[in-house]
Specification:
This protein is an alpha+beta fold and about 325 residues long. It contains nine helices and twelve strands. It has helices spanning about 20-25, 30-40, 75, 90-95, 120-125, 155-160, 200, 255-260, 300-305, and strands spanning about 105-110, 115-120, 130-135, 140-150, 170-175, 195, 205-210, 215, 225-230, 240-245, 280-285, 290-295. The longest helix has 11 residues, at about 30-40. It binds the ligand Nc1nc2c(c(=O)[nH]1)N[C@H]1C(S)=C(S)[C@@H](COP(=O)(O)O)O[C@H]1N2 and molybdenum atom.
Length: about 325
């Protein structure tokens, strides 16, 4: 349960943790019970016991990605996560420590020259790792800043050699209900899926994350492989990826399936387009004692990505 002090200028809708609540209202879920089960299993382990790629960190920082605000401390970030496979609350990340992340395979399939399955360590070692400082903005109106390590998604796209018919990429998270209590809640469309257009996926900002804070990725952040698309609301940045499919049709995503009027395919950050149940005008910087800042269009990455959406009409680009 999130305990927050109300400020006079905060609107009432912000009391919700909206993504979770949306489903809670509809399905009478017993998240508390599920969380309790996971807690008894928690071996206090945030990383793989010994990460086979540990020697690659810290990777060299790419100075092109600058921040306008301080980094969110690691200890704050690892205790404030959305990871619905494990819990509806922000403690989900801690509960995720039961997830086995080795061995781990990533399937590359669909409209590619040669579908293949890669062991995660082979994949990571094949890719050019670098560190980037990114903003991160959840649709629930909280925000963070993180030093991610990873590689441009474009490098993986080039490696996969998509066929001409590939118009979108569909990403899929693991499905292990025995390990992830949230996945025993059968009314969710597990596994978690997300999608990007090929133009979005090959934009330089689209980043495949394998590490954070100069180390291999902690499980709470979506180890061993997650996406970071910082100009979009956080739910687009799918965690713990096992399958990357090149497809012709726009994939229907996890959140779009649950609430199409609230969570769409595009989900680009825009302060002037409110969520149906709350304003997106400002955001709370987690770990700063409740400081709020004005939300930035495309989360401040408009220069890099606004061009992707020129000429697209009749689409809810900001939801
Ligand atoms: N598989 C999976 N990926 C996910 C989620 C999730 O519940 N499951 N939550 C999303 C949401 S809503 C956000 S805001 C970010 C949270 O990332 P963080 O915990 O690293 O801040 O992950 C996204 N990726
Ligand atoms: Mo989110």
């Amino acid at each position: 349960m999130l305990i927050r002090r109300r400020r006079s200028w905060e609107i009432a809708e912000r009391e919700a943790t909206p993504e979770a609540l949306f489903v809670a209202r509809r399905s009478l879920l017993k998240a508390g019970a599920a969380a309790l089960v996971a807690e008894t299993l928690w071996p206090q382990q945030l990383f793989a016991a010994s990460d086979p790629t540990a020697d690659l960190y810290p990777a060299k920082r790419n100075p092109a990605f600058k921040l306008d605000r301080p980094l969110t401390p690691e200890s704050v970030n690892t205790h404030y996560n959305n990871f619905y496979e494990f819990s509806m609350s922000k403690d989900a990340g801690q509960l995720a420590s039961v997830l086995p992340i080795r061995p781990w395979s990533v399937h590359i399939d669909g409209l590619v020259e040669k579908p293949q399955t890669l062991a995660i360590d082979d994949l990571i070692r094949r890719m050019p790792l670098e560190e980037r400082l990114y903003r991160h903005r959840c649709v629930e109106t909280w925000a963070m800043t993180i030093p991610w390590t990873g590689f441009p998604l474009k490098t993986l796209v080039d490696y996969a050699k998509p066929l001409a018919g590939a118009k979108y990429i569909r990403f899929q998270t693991f499905k292990e209900p025995k390990v992830a209590p949230g996945q025993r809640q059968f009314w969710y469309p597990w596994p978690y899926t997300e999608g990007l257009t090929m133009a979005e996926a090959t934009n330089d900002l689209a980043f495949m994350v394998t590490g954070a804070y100069g180390k291999p990725l902690a499980k709470c952040f979506g180890a061993p492989l997650r996406l970071a698309v910082p100009w979009k609301y956080g739910f687009k940045s799918i965690k713990s990826i096992v399958r990357i499919s090149f497809v012709a049709e726009r994939p229907k995503t996890f959140w779009e399936t649950l609430g199409p009027s609230e969570y769409g395919f595009w989900a680009n950050v825009n302060p002037n387009v409110p969520h149906p149940r709350w304003s997106q005008a400002t955001e709370e910087m987690i770990g700063t004692g409740g400081q709020r800042r004005p939300t930035l269009l495309f989360n401040g990455y408009g220069e890099e990505v606004a061009g992707l959406y020129k000429g697209i009409t009749g689409e809810k680009l900001f939801m």
